[in-house]
Amino acid sequence: MKKIQILGTGCPKCKKLYEAALQAAKEASIEAEVTKVEDINEIIKFGVMMTPALVVDGEVKVVGRVPRPDELKSMIV
Fold first, then answer.
1. Residue 35: which domain range?
2. Fewer Cβ close by (within 10 Å): the C or N end of the chain?
3. Is residue 11 among the annotated active site residues?
4. Which stretch of DSSP H or E encloses residue 59?
């Protein structure tokens, strides 16, 4: 099972990325645990200074933007 984390403090873009990640995992038929990380100290541990950020299986994939749906799918597959 993939572990997908959305790093962000709850801004609109963070919420959009969370919803987009859920949708992308569903469309790609991937078993994934999608969680939000809103604690600033936890976010900093990833070395991320800008949100939203997408982390897949512990690896930061994108920072500071919401990727296009096709781009997002390729990142989580």
1. 2-76
2. N
3. yes
4. strand 59-63
